[in-house]
Design a protein that fits this description.
By secondary structure, the chain is α+β, with helices and mostly antiparallel strands. The chain has 3 helices and 5 strands. The chain starts with 8 loop residues before the first helix and ends with a helix.
Length: about 120
């Protein structure tokens, strides 16, 4: 289901809770919402659709990768980026890392690890 984009700063600043298998529908909603905004969005977190769970989706070109409870394990080569967000007005500067390694749970509830670099690493961060 396409969900409305959350713009409430108070809500967005709250810490998200760990996702469980019962939260698999959040991934479906994130995918639907990302597809509806694909002209200006390449990744989303569950809080952007009003859900305080640790779930993200990253557009990897031909595939949209859903990560439940992602944990950044390694990061190197910092750089300054400018990014926009559907939940916030405008763009802002932020520090990102050229190379990252992330551990997460996939949609089948299997633990995975992935190394990302460049654009895909930036989206995931």
């Amino acid at each position: 289901m396409i969900r409305p984009i959350m713009k409430d700063i108070f809500f967005l600043n709250q810490r998200s809770e760990p996702a469980t298998e019962a939260d698999k529908q959040v991934a479906v909603d994130l995918l639907d919402t990302l597809k509806a905004h694909e002209e200006g969005c390449v990744g989303m977190a569950a809080n952007m659709i009003g859900v305080k769970k640790r779930v993200i989706i990253v557009n990897m070109g031909l595939v949209d990768l859903v990560m439940f409870n992602p944990v950044l394990l390694k990061a190197d080569t910092p750089y300054e980026a400018e990014e926009g967000c559907l939940s916030l007005v405008g763009v802002r500067k932020t520090t990102r890392y050229q190379n990252i390694e992330v551990e997460y749970t996939d949609k089948n509830w299997n633990k995975k690890r992935i190394k990302l670099s460049g654009w895909y690493a930036q989206i995931c961060q």
